[in-house]
Design goal:
With 424 residues, the chain is of the alpha/beta class. It contains nine helices and 18 strands.
């Protein structure tokens, strides 16, 4: 049996209901060994594909992963394929993530939710339910210790490269990854090169916005070339954490990074993360401003609202692992009336309507497939390791208080998920 680790959430889809091929899928770390392009690729003008629907969904990277550990998803008391559940309740897209660098083992646990074989399996599960795929391609990696985390580090085998060579390697990895997925019958409708790139991208020292822009150009050109060569339509996204940091888009534009379609945002207004709207009063005004200023549409790629405080002995948890995000507010967590599935549903519906009013194209929640590390009849769980920042590693889930499945009701789906049915 595989085991898992990591902070902020996990999940997988159950052996009894999991889908995907049985054949071995091999994906080399370096798909080909051609010489990298010597010059930075020039942005290619590409018309943005017509968007005929508002995208609504959740991450699903952890669902099948958790199911492999024996955790189950239920609906009305019955064990249910979670991909089918979200589809039946209004989702039309799920987000997955493919990393170039695998997580290291932690106490013998292999964390594979972001690795090739798992991503192919999960994408096939989504496709089987008629769900579109938003894919984050993460070439850099995150480091975790007992006390802290550093994000978006450059891979060791890329560290000594000059910028043009590095850009060529990035181009190849993005292009070859997407073509390899295409050959598996998987074509995402939205691709983001990098995760929260305003925080950092392929860092080899201090974060440099101009360097990030130049490197993103290689990745975005690879997305365009994949779409052309494979005859598919795909939207390319830049992922920014915190709406108040939206001016990073200006920095990227000033350095020639414009060959993408969507400004995708992480939005966590809870006090422990503390995102804000900056100079904008709403996502409607922000979305309209981005269309006027950059001809880009916005979407929310990450957000969450807690459906319960999950309070156990004064701590916010569904297991013995402290949760890492609580919204509306950590200090308000004793007021249980603000933490209900109905409140989660209403908040996400209002947020989606706000995004839509500004010409935005979608909202995808993060970690809402989370379950706590508790097996039925086993009081102490089974050792799924999850990072509990900011102080320590621990076992359990850090995000189950934001899930669409109620761990206080045997992991049954609750009405929070139905915000997706409320949005046309």
């Amino acid at each position: 049996m595989k085991k898992l680790l990591w902070g902020i959430v996990p999940m997988l889809m159950l052996a009894a209901v999991a889908c995907g091929g049985d054949e071995d899928v091999k994906f080399p770390d370096k798909p080909n060994q051609e010489e990298p392009k010597p010059e930075e690729p020039k942005p290619k003008p590409g018309p943005m594909p017509e968007v005929e629907k508002f995208y609504k969904g959740t991450t699903m990277s952890f669902a099948n992963y958790l199911i492999d550990f024996g955790l189950v998803y239920r609906e009305n008391g019955e064990v249910m394929n979670p991909y089918k559940s979200v589809k039946d309740h209004g989702a039309n897209i799920v987000r997955l993530q493919l990393d170039r660098v695998a997580f290291p083992e932690y106490n013998g646990v292999t964390i594979d939710w972001q690795q090739w074989e798992r991503v192919v399996e999960d994408a096939k599960c989504a496709k089987a339910e008629g769900l579109d795929i938003m894919l984050t391609l993460k070439p850099d990696y995150d480091k975790y210790t007992a006390t802290n985390a550093t994000h978006n580090n450059i891979p060791e085998d890329w560290k000594s490269m000059d910028e043009n060579t590095l850009g060529g390697e990035l181009y190849k990895w993005v292009y070859d990854s997407l073509v390899a997925l295409h050959n598996e019958g998987i074509d995402p409708v939205i691709v983001a090169v990098g995760n929260e790139v305003n925080i950092g991208f392929l860092l080899n020292g201090e974060h440099d916005g101009a360097r990030t822009a130049r490197l993103l150009n290689y990745g975005h050109t690879a997305v365009r070339d994949y779409a052309r060569d494979c005859g598919v339509e795909v939207l390319s996204a830049v992922h920014i954490a915190n709406p108040s940091k939206i001016d990073y888009v200006d920095t990227y534009k000033q350095n020639g990074c414009t060959n993408y379609d969507i400004i995708a945002l992480s939005w966590y207004p809870g006090t422990n993360i503390g995102h804000s709207m900056g100079s904008y009063t709403s996502f409607e005004t922000l979305g309209k401003a981005m269309m006027t200023k950059h001809s880009k549409r916005i979407m929310i790629l990450e957000t969450a609202h807690s459906f319960t405080t999950g309070t156990v002995n004064g701590k916010w948890m569904g297991d013995w692992c402290d949760n890492s995000y609580n919204y509306p507010d950590w200090n308000d967590a004793t007021n249980a009336t603000n933490y209900t599935p109905a409140k989660q549903r209403a908040w996400l519906k209002a947020l989606a309507e706000d995004v839509k009013a500004g010409g935005g194209i979608g909202l995808i929640t993060w970690g809402t497939e989370s379950l706590p590390d508790l097996l039925e009849g086993k009081a102490e769980g089974h050792g799924v390791g999850l990072y509990t920042y900011p102080t320590a590693w621990g076992y359990g889930s850090t995000w189950e208080n934001n899930s669409y499945w109620d761990f206080t009701q045997e992991n049954n789906l609750h009405e929070g998920v139905d915000w997706m049915q409320d949005i046309e």
